[in-house]
Amino acid sequence: MNAPESISGKFAIEVSGLACRYGEKTILENVSFAVKRGEIFFVIGGSGCGKSTLLRNLVGLQPPAAGEVRYFGREFTRAAPAQRRDLLRTFGVLYQGGALWSSLTLGENVALPLELYADLTRAERGEIVALKLAQVGLAGYADYYPSEISGGMRKRAGLARALALDPAIVFFDEPSAGLDPITSLQLDRLVKQIRDTFGTTIVIVSHELASIFDLADRVIMLDRIVRGVIAEGEPGWLRDRSQDVRVREFLNRREEPVAQQGGKPA
Asked: In this predicted model, what pLDDT tens digit does every residue of 225-255 receive, in sequence order?
């Protein structure tokens, strides 16, 4: 579904003073940023800096220790159950590995959000499932199980599920992890096509430089020592002009090529 027409403003997401903790351990504190509608926005940084933790707080899998998250001007963090459910319909999430249920076919996996959040007949769900699989290049694969396809195809099937409700925002957690360079490039092109075609706001957690420079309109960079944001802006500008050596080193580093995957098609 698209963002409610009654909600104005240029920001899809606004985060203010967010703190993320596991027990007594603080991972992030005082994190603030905003994501524009229709933007491809990256959360970047080295291992252990809190990228995936931030994502879990943004999508409601973990409650923030402090701060506020707003979607299209509506408060999400402390929203009443009915309001929270309404907001959850506005975004989809592609987790690492696709996070598909291995006992379900691809079609059954994609149908899950429709069964949970949409009042549709079985035939109507089937039509949407076929459409979403076709959008990610998996037409005809509805009856396949995750074990019968490649890692790249599982990522695309996970994306089809994330798109099932026509979300206004899609979150990606390390989408290129475990993929060879060609498959990763194909996924990047698909992400860009979705944004350009539907105006979807895209938020991607990643440390992959190729994807960052190919896709990102803007980034924020997290740092494990600071436990927060140390840079925000266009990645090329930050790479060349940032005054912070940590930012320049991260964005100018060399990445080792990922070994090609064999076997099943991508």
From this structure: 999 999 999 999 999 999 999 999 999 987 6
**Confidence grade of residue 6 (pLDDT, cut at 50, 70, 90):** very low
By C-alpha distance, which of 213, 200, 141 is closest to 172? 200
Structural domains of the chain sorted by starting position, each given as residue range(s) with its CATH number in brackets: 37-60+88-252 (3.40.50.300)
| Residues 151 and 183 sit within 8 Å (Cβ to Cβ) | yes
d(CA 250, CA 98): 27
Spatial distance between the Cα atoms of 133 and 51, rounded to a whole number of angstroms: 28
Tokens of 132: 């979403």
Burial of 110 (0-12, 13-18, 19+ CB in 10 A): buried
pTM of the model: 0.89
Report the Cα 114 to chain-centroid distance in Å. 19
